[in-house]
């Protein structure tokens, strides 16, 4: 038996874990009490990770689709065939015809993600889709506008704040996003314990709101009016730190003009939050010595995620809470940042700007289905399940069917992989060396600023391979060079040869060399040095007072409070407001994460889908249910955008009237490779989510997955279709 100290790479908290193994098998996983950031916290998903690593459904060899059935093939054959197909497509149609989707789990591992970008660059390909446009691209686009870069992000000083307004987040379940904080709910409950205050702005009374703080129900997708009203009231009370604004910010007057028409009384008609309640919240925010407004995925996925982010950070900034103890702090990256790409790319479909060098997933089907120069013909999907996780599943299925080459790299054969020509078996995170997530290394969003290195804990399952190695080998097979660099490709080829030599091979592993090089560039020392910190290594903390006037990356060196395109767009909000009032009676659908699910990939673990947990449900308030003749347990039809799904009903008093929810990540019935998940009965809500260029937020490419207007009817069982 061996004990390994490592860290979890399932969510942003990255908790320290102790994994006991025997014969390359995980025997037990426990939280690491001594970890400098997580101090003994871990959730059920991290602790049950062994079930994913050793799942009987793990892919052990490459698979090729022959006459509609998958057959095992050798690595040599897979690389040769994929390489030659790629070469042909590249020669005939250029790099524009090659695209990739890089899913959420691999986002937590630096080496494979870098390798995938080097792979795309080898072909001059730039169409990289990610879940970022389903969860946070508005923040990247907002960071560019306000603070001078996508990676320039701020986060609440959660352990010191006296007041937190948490909008569209549910930490008890999610462990949050854009703040890497193990056990965030304990930290938030502690705000109240030290005499502070917490408000939850959410259409649903969440698990988090039940634990601490006050729940304020808001009509979905109206947060932009909430922020405008809040800002209007602050300016009306002249609670602005004018000196700070004059010294460190630009655009205050335009910002104030934008907020001028939006009084608390007016916005209440859309948000359904009474003006008095708002007024009390503003008072509490202004009286607190250190206050923060923070919004997250529930808002990011609305139509106005970018506007909400802008207004919220403008409020934090002008009230003096930016760069202040207990307010919001600007993250300090651990790794030196590379300069942002100079060229601003826009998409062929819809002319949408790329954000953080990625293209919106909401137009993926169009990029594949629309003929003409630049049509996507070859697609690589690493660690993603776009069929279940991206909007417009029916069109995506049609698009995937049409690809000339579709390769999935995964640990299992998921729903998307059913459309693949080849499936390549890859490592699970416990099988690779790693450093913490991008939000640590490049954005520094940690309340406890720290860093760790981990070696692999168990050996690779079967013939599965490191994703980084696969991309290096594919480049060679297709006759191109990684990142377009002949030198890099030669180094890669030489390292591969040396890998076969005993002892020497271990020293020339590119993944470790790469991680070591990055850590050394951050003055942390190489792999050997970082191994001396198995419980994580504390770094200089993020401190208030060193950001404004010092680290702001905009050209002016000041925080830009009035990005011109957003000021312009704010003018159309009168029309949006009218539409909102006209649609008052419509039902709006929001998303909901659950303790035992993680996007689409946790339903293949028996313990997570027991009994009632084997399905998702339509959560609906009793008033809305009875108005439609729905009772607990019956099936309802939920329709939007010309599509529908049928879901069992759960009456739920925590839902705000007028709001319904269907959790995402379900719809596994055709997943032949998932022995447990395929028996679950939940349905894929993304069938009814809107896709296409008109459905996405125009500046950030964010998909609209929250506050989508739906129709709900009782399902007539005699009716078909
Ligand atoms: N158990 C579990 N944990 C997870 C995940 C998972 O699938 N399962 N996924 C992980 C991932 S990838 C992410 S990105 C993070 C996300 O984590 P968070 O950013 O915390 O977001 P969510 O948990 O999705 O919570 C969003 C909240 O927004 C609310 N909401 C919906 N619409 C609106 C609206 O219009 N306005 C407002 N104000 N609120 C709204 C919803 O009711 C919900 O409570 O969670 C991570 N953690
Ligand atoms: N309607 C709706 N849709 C949503 C959301 C929502 O709230 N509502 N949330 C969105 C969010 S926040 C996100 S992040 C996306 C997630 O969307 P995706 O990233 O597309 O989907 P996941 O379900 O995370 O699928 C992950 C796949 O990665 C595989 N995998 C796990 N570990 C590894 C590994 O180490 N290597 C490789 N190669 N594969 C691995 C798993 O087996 C699984 O097949 O979904 C989005 N979709
Ligand atoms: S909270 Fe996140 S990082 Fe921590 S154990 Fe759970 S899934 Fe892993
Ligand atoms: Mo996400």
Question: Helix and strand layout, with pairings?
Answer:
Layout: E1 2-7, E2 16-22, E3 25-31, H1 44-47, H2 50-53, E4 63-66, E5 69-72, H3 75-93, E6 98-102, H4 110-122, E7 127-129, H5 132-135, H6 137-147, E8 154-156, E9 163-167, H7 171-174, H8 184-193, E10 197-201, H9 207-211, E11 214-216, H10 223-236, H11 242-248, E12 249-250, H12 252-259, H13 264-271, H14 275-287, E13 291-295, H15 297-300, H16 305-318, E14 328-330, H17 364-369, E15 378-382, H18 386-389, H19 393-402, E16 405-410, E17 422-425, H20 438-441, E18 450-451, H21 467-478, H22 486-498, H23 504-507, H24 510-521, H25 527-530, E19 537-538, E20 559-560, H26 564-570, H27 573-582, E21 587-590, E22 618-620, H28 622-627, E23 635-640, E24 643-651, E25 659-661, E26 708-714
Parallel strand pairs: 6-7, 6-15, 9-10, 9-13, 10-11, 12-20, 15-16, 16-17, 21-25, 22-24
Antiparallel strand pairs: 1-2, 2-3, 4-5, 4-17, 8-14, 18-19, 21-26, 22-25, 23-24, 23-26
The protein binds ligand MGD (2 copies), iron/sulfur cluster (SF4) and molybdenum atom.
The site of iron/sulfur cluster (SF4) has 12 residues, from helix 1.
Give an overview of the whole structure.
- The chain is 32% helix and 16% strand.
- It has 28 helices and 26 strands.
- The strands form 7 sheets. The protein has a 7-stranded mixed beta sheet, with helices on one face.
- The longest helix has 19 residues.
- It is globular.
- One ligand MGD binds next to helix 5, helix 18 and strand 16.
């Amino acid at each position: 038996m061996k004990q390994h100290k490592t860290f979890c790479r399932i969510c942003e908290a990255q908790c320290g874990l102790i994994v006991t193994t025997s014969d390359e098998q995980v025997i037990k996983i426990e939280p690491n009490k001594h970890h400098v950031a997580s101090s003994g916290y871990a959730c059920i998903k991290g602790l049950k990770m062994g079930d994913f690593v050793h799942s009987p459904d793990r892919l052990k060899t490459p698979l090729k689709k022959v006459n509609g059935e998958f057959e095992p093939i050798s690595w040599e054959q897979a690389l040769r065939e994929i390489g030659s197909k790629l070469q042909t497509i590249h020669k005939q149609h250029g790099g524009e015809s090659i695209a990739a989707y890089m899913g959420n789990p691999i986002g937590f591992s630096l080496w494979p993600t870098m390798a995938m970008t080097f792979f795309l660059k080898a072909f001059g390909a730039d169409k990289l889709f990610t879940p970022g446009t389903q969860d946070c691209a508005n923040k990247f686009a907002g960071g560019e506008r306000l603070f001078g870069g996508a990676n320039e992000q701020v986060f609440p000083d959660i352990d010191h704040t006296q007041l937190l307004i948490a909008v569209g987040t549910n930490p008890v379940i999610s462990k949050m996003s854009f703040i890497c904080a193990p056990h965030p709910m304990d930290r938030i409950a502690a705000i109240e314990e030290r005499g502070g205050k917490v408000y939850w702005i959410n259409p649903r009374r969440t698990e988090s709101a039940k634990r601490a703080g006050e729940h304020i129900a808001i009509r979905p997708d109206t947060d932009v009016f909430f922020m405008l009203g809040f800002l209007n009231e602050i300016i009306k009370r002249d609670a602005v730190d004018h000196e700070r604004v004059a010294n460190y910010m630009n655009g205050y007057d335009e910002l104030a003009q934008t907020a001028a028409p939006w009084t608390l009384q007016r916005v209440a008609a859309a948000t359904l939050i009474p003006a008095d309640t708002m007024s009390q919240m503003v008072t509490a925010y202004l009286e607190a010595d250190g206050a923060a407004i923070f919004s997250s995925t529930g808002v990011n996925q609305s139509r106005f995620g970018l506007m909400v982010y802008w207004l919220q950070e403008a409020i934090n900034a002008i009230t003096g809470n930016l760069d202040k103890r207990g307010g919001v702090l600007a993250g300090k990256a651990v790794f030196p940042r590379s300069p942002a790409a100079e060229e601003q790319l826009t998409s062929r479909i819809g002319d949408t700007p790329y954000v953080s060098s990625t293209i919106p997933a909401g137009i993926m089907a169009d990029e594949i289905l629309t003929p003409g120069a630049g049509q996507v013909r070859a697609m690589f999907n690493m660690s993603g399940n776009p069929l279940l996780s991206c909007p417009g599943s029916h069109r995506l299925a049609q698009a995937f069917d049409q690809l000339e080459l579709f390769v999935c790299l995964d640990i299992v054969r998921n729903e998307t992989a059913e459309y693949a020509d080849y499936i390549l078996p890859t490592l699970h995170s416990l099988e690779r060396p790693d450093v913490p997530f991008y939000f640590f290394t490049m954005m520094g969003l940690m309340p406890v600023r720290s860093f760790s290195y981990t070696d692999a804990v168990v050996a690779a399952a079967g013939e599965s391979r490191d994703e980084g190695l696969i991309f290096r080998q594919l480049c060679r097979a297709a006759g191109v060079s990684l990142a377009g660099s002949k030198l890099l490709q030669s180094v890669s080829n030489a390292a591969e040869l040396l890998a076969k030599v005993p002892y020497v091979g271990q020293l020339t592993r590119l993944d470790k060399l790469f991680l070591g090089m990055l850590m050394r560039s951050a003055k942390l020392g190489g792999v050997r040095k970082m191994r001396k910190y198995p419980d994580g290594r504390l770094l200089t903390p993020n401190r208030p007072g060193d950001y404004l006037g010092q680290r702001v990356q905009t050209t002016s060196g000041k925080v830009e409070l009035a990005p011109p395109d957003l000021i312009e767009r704010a003018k159309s909000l009168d029309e949006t407001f009218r539409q909102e009032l006209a649609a008052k009676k419509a039902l709006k659908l929001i998303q909901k994460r659950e303790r035992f699910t993680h996007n689409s990939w946790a339903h293949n673990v028996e313990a997570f889908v027991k009994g009632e947990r084997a399905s998702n449900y339509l959560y609906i308030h009793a008033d809305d249910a009875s108005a439609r003749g729905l009772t607990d347990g019956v099936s309802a039809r939920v329709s939007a955008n010309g599509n529908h799904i049928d879901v069992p009903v759960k009456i739920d008093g925590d839902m705000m009237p007028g709001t319904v929810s269907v959790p995402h990540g379900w719809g596994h019935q055709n997943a032949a490779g998932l022995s447990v998940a395929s028996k679950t009965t939940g349905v894929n809500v993304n069938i009814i989510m809107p896709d296409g260029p008109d459905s996405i937020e125009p500046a950030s490419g964010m998909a609209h997955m929250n506050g989508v207007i739906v129709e709900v009817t009782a399902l007539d069982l005699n009716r078909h279709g």
